């Protein structure tokens, strides 16, 4: 099968770097367009050690901290995508996307919306109880996607 549009999910992990290597190579060999997608956490919230009563003053403080956390999350996502883009061969047409949401749902929705032919995603290598309890983004994408999925290790 000839791929025209390839999506690589990037989170900065070793697994996603391997996915980037594979996706870039496939795109280079098939002349496909490569999209690098990073999904940010839905709602970054500041962490507190306990429960505090919320007054008007503390509500605005929490709101400011949430805005700062969102900015930091976006900056981090942009850095991840920039580093990834620098590793793609220059002859490969590359796009980037930075989105909010649940990772597996967002990846599958993006692939469907933009007519992606192949999703390449890394495996975090969870095993045993952690995999059972936490699940796996790559497994959820494999199950839910309407296109071929390549999971790299």
Automatic annotation (TrEMBL):
Subcellular location, record wording: Cytoplasm
CDD domains, alphabetized: USP-like
Keyword Hydrolase: no
Limits of the UspA domain: 3-153
Record keywords: Cytoplasm
Family per record: Belongs to the universal stress protein A family.
Listed name of the protein: Universal stress protein
Organism in which the protein naturally occurs: Fictibacillus barbaricus
């Amino acid at each position: 099968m000839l791929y025209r549009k390839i999506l690589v999910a990037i989170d900065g992990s070793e697994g996603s770097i391997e996915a980037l290597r594979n996706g870039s190579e496939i795109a280079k060999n098939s002349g496909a367009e490569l999209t690098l997608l990073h999904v940010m956490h839905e709602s970054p919230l500041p962490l507190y050690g306990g429960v505090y009563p919320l007054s008007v003053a503390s509500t605005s403080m929490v709101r400011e901290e949430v805005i700062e956390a969102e900015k930091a999350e976006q900056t981090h996502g942009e850095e991840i995508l920039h580093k990834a883009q620098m590793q793609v061969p220059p002859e490969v047409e590359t796009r980037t996307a930075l989105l909010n949401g649940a990772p597996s749902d967002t990846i599958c929705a993006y692939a469907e919306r933009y007519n992606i032919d192949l999703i390449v995603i890394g495996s975090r290598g969870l095993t045993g109880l952690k995999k059972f309890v936490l699940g796996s983004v790559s497994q959820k994408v494999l199950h839910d996607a309407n296109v071929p999925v390549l999971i790299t290790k």
